[in-house]
What we know:
By secondary structure, the chain is mostly helical. The protein has helices at about 5-15, 20-55, 70-90, 95-145, 150-170, 175-200, 205-210, 220-245, 250-260, 265-305, 310, 320-335, 345-355, 360-365, 375-385, 390-410, 415-435, 440-465.
Amino acid sequence: MNYKDDNLTSSFSVRKIPVNNNEIKEENYNNKYSDRIKILELNNYIDEWEKELLFADNGYFSLKGKEVENKAKEYIEELENFINSKINNMSFSKKDAYETAQQIKLLKIDNIKSRLLNYEAQELFEWEIDVYEKSIELSVQKAVLYKDNPKIIASCYKNGTSVLELMAERENWNSKILKSKKEKYESDFYYALTTAFLEEKNINFVLYFEKYKEKLKEEKKVELEKIISEMKNKIIAYNWAKELFSYNLNESENEKEINKIKDKELLYEVRKFISVLKNNKKKHEEEEEKAKAEKCWENILSYIDTEPEKALLYIDLSQKAENIKSQREYIKRIIKSGEIITDKSKYIDVIKQAFTDFEEFKKKNIFEYRHLFSKEDFEIIKSIQQLTNEEIIILSSDIKLLFEKTNDLKINKKEELYSIIKIYLHFLKEYKTENKKEADIEKRNKIIASMVERISLKNDKEKGSKEK
């Protein structure tokens, strides 16, 4: 716009022009509804603020327990500042519209403040109750930890009852409720202490029960009385069984004495303890025999290369007959031929047993095979016995596959089966040495397929030669 135009506009604007009444009415009408829309918009702003700041995932109502403490004041101040800024940015045509906006502000703030303070009070109250309950729980736990210290136990009990009194005051319990709560706490307190001794199989379990049983609730009292009754029964049964077992009676004499017991429950427990004592004795004897045999073999092997005849002197004649026999057989074979030639049939049998019933195989005295296997083969069998359950599971599937393949191809000569097993086990050992890890299933399956195929081709070739 140029200077001339500006002058024209100025001259025109200062003239008095007649005003149309319809235009005035339309302007008033528009201003009226403009104010209403702005009031509605202000209301929307506040509702949006409420939604975003109070109900969002990390908003005010997501706060729990102690987190909410003093937060209502902060949110209300922020809300007031927010509304003021919105009102200040709105230009109302009439004063009463501005006053309406102020009234909405006060009403909204008052309503939201009330909701925030109620939520804060409820959360803080629940947090307070949680603190009380945790204190009571910890008083019991601490008493259990110091169950041999009467002073600490008394202090823990006093702390627990003091907290209950605070709760009673805070929650306005009447005297009947407080009394009921204290009785329950007392029962839980002494029940926890008593059972703590029970878990440790400590005789104080019975002493504590006798001392505090009247403080226990009836159901807990009955429960512990039953346990004590069973415990006493087991103690009597154990002592009875132990004495009877010490007589070293034969089976029929033992049974005759046991049948003299009239109490069925006691009879049942005595039989159980007799069985346990027998198993323990057998296990102890087996362990002793195994240790004795290992010591004997250790002595034999220390002389076998230099003075094999002298090794005969180190056979412990108090061992089992089969151990003595295998040791003598081993020494004789070494003296005669200087080495042990593996019994291939026995080797295959032992391999099958190891991979079909590993738990039983682990219990065996491995030296009972020493006179049947070469040094190398014996070490292989010995190493299999030392495998973990996870390792034996993997190898078992391989050995099973190995025997299935050889069976399908009718490979049943002991020399061939022995050779396949040896090659396979040698491959595993060699692979682990070279690669510093176990062979995976793909590599293991390949070596099995390769070995079986090679022997199959060899057999076909031999068969063809015979037919010619």
